[in-house]
Amino acid sequence: MNYRKKIFILIITLLIISGLSYLYALYIIGCNHSSSYSCSTIFFKQLNSTFVATPLFISASLLFLVIFSEKVFNIWKKYAVVAIPLMLVGIFVTKVDPVACGILICTDRTFMIFFLGIVYTILSVLVTIISALYYKTKK
């Protein structure tokens, strides 16, 4: 399969995941407002945007890769395999409760999602551009 088709399939898949996550997050928010005991509010506190925003940042970096060759895509793929789990660990390790932070500066998970997502996207663009320039000068 052509790598551009792979990229488009990945983008469509990530957008579908993001859309379904958004609908599920709306369900959880509605369930929390109704004060139902069947809701799992501990896990979903400030995580609604994680399931929506993270696939969107990955999709944005994939859109940039469409114009480059398959060699550049393979280098980006190696970067993404390392960076995405680190980004997710950074999001889930963030302390939500101000009492648990102690004397450290507390941030909420929504800030960390967008901060790490922006850093991921910028580094993804830099990795793509540097590897494209490397292969262009190598010719």
Question: Can you offer a commentary on this structure?
Answer:
With 139 residues, the protein is mainly alpha-helical. It has one domain. The protein is built from five helices and no strands. Helix 2 packs parallel to helix 5 and helix 3 packs antiparallel against helix 5. The longest helix is centred in the first third of the chain and has 31 residues. The chain is flat and about 60 Å long.
- Rg from C-alpha positions? 18 Å
Number of DSSP E strands: 0
- Any idea what the shape is? flat
β-sheet strand percentage: under 5%
Order of helical and strand elements: HHHHH
Protein structure class: mainly alpha
Number of structural domains: 1
Helix count from the secondary structure assignment: 5
Distance between the termini: 25 Å
Biggest beta sheet attributes: none
Segments where pLDDT lies below 50 for 5+ residues? Answer: none
Helix content bin = over 70%
If you average the pLDDT, what whole number results?
A: 76
Highlighted features:
mainly alpha; 77% helix; 5 helices
Short description:
The chain is 77% helix and 0% strand.
Task: Please outline the helices and strands.
Layout lengths: L2 H31 L14 H18 L4 H24 L4 H4 L7 H30 L1
Helix pairs in contact: 1-2, 2-3, 2-5, 3-5
